[in-house]
Each structure stands twice: as structure tokens, then as C-alpha cells.
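PROTOCOL LOG
Step 1. Enter all chains and additional molecules of the complex.
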Amino acid sequence: MTDQEQHARFRLDEVIHAPVRFSIVAALAHVEEADFAAVRDAVQVSDSVLSKQVTLLERAGYVEVKKGYVGKRPRTWLKLTPVGEAAFNGHLQALRAIAGQ
Amino acid sequence: MNTIPSDSVDIPLPGDVTAAQARAALSQASSAQLVTPRDLRLLTGFVAGVGVIVGAILYLSWATLSVGNQGGFAISMSLYAAALALLLVIKSRARAIPRGFRRTYNIGFAVTMTAYCTGILWIFGHQSPWPSASVVIPMSIVTAVPCLIAAALVHRTARA
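Step 2. Run joint prediction.
Step 3. Record the structure below.
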């Protein structure tokens, strides 16, 4: 085991690393913001699972949740924060370092 | 029975990630796509539509007021407001906003509105005589073009 391999593992983000949260963050990384239902359909989880994972990401400061209305219909929008984007990019760099070994 | 997968079992600790798992995760990250073709149609339609209606209202303002048709001008402005409201409804139906959309739209809209304001000031500063349609129509087209270009850029960037 080399020093480089150890360093890459240490750089993996524990919040983002979980599969569903990783999928959520990966999806949000490509958009400015997205509707809750769109993220749910893309990640293929239930409303409750997505809500729970988004709450964890929001507490970590990685995702911003915005609630509003379109007409009388409530809408929830999700957006990756700059902190979340930096954490995701750092996580990807660590994965690339691991994948390249 | 609810068979939606949970996030609570067999999750490798960060230190347990293999190279193959890392490559799979990277592949998933690069292929993640929230913006659908429908979202793209709605958003590009919105941006293009804004350009078209601003260009149109420049022309209609000249077409009505140059012949003293105040009623026609009022109807034109009402139609413009209704068209804008419809475009905002169309935009609100998009479920994901691609990266760069807001910046591209804001720049296109700002240039379109600058052209509109310039056109309005020039047209109404030259009322004796009023400029002809051969001047106003190209001005209206020039007014619409920045938003049309922005719409094309939104479409191309999101599909890239």
C-alpha cells in the first residue's frame, strides 16, 4: 500500500459516499437546480428516502432546499451549494486517484 | 409490497473502495442527467419566445402609434403581457434547469432589452416623419436575435 493510495481514501467524503446521496449530488452537479420529483425519478428512490437523504445533505451544507408554489401547486427545488460542489469535486478527485491505481 | 431500495445496508466504508468501484462511481457521476429533452424544449422555447415578443412589441408599438391608433397600442400591450405570462407558465413546467441557463438567458435578455429601448427611443425620436416598415422590421428582428441566440446556446450547452 502506497502513501498515495492512503491519501486518496482519506479524501473521500463520508457524507457524499453513500450510494443514494452520491447519486443525488451527482445529478445536481449537472444542473443549476432541479425539482424534487425530477431528482426522485432520476435517482429511483421513494419520496421518503429522498427527503431523508436530502435532509442529511442539507445539514452538511451541501444542498439548498427551496420551497415555493407554481400556481396553487407546491414545488420543492434542490440545488447544490458551492460547498457541496467543492465537496463533490474533491470526492471525484479522490475516486479518480483510486481508479487510476 | 414496497421494494424501493434503502440506503442502509452493505455500504462500503470510504476506506474500502476498490478501483473498480471508483470507476463505476465515476461513470455514474458523468452520466447523471436530470435535464430531459422536454425541459430543454420548454426552456429554449421560453428564451426564444421572450425575444420574439419583445421584437414584436417594438414593431406593434410603431405600427399602432405611428397611425394614431391608441386602442391598437393598448391591445398590443395586453397581448404582450398575456404572451409573457404564458411563457412564464411554460418555463415553470421545466423540472430541471441546466447549468449556465440563467447566465445565458440574462445576457440574451439584457441585450434584447437594450436593443428594444434603443429602438423605441430612436423610433419615437423620429416622428416627423415616422420611420418606414423597411427600417422598423429589421430593428424588430435585431431586437429578437439576442434571445434567439441565447436559446440556441442553452440548447447546445445542455445537450453537450
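Step 4. Note key features.
Chain B has one domain: 37-159.
Chain B touches chain A through 31 residues (CB under 8 Å).
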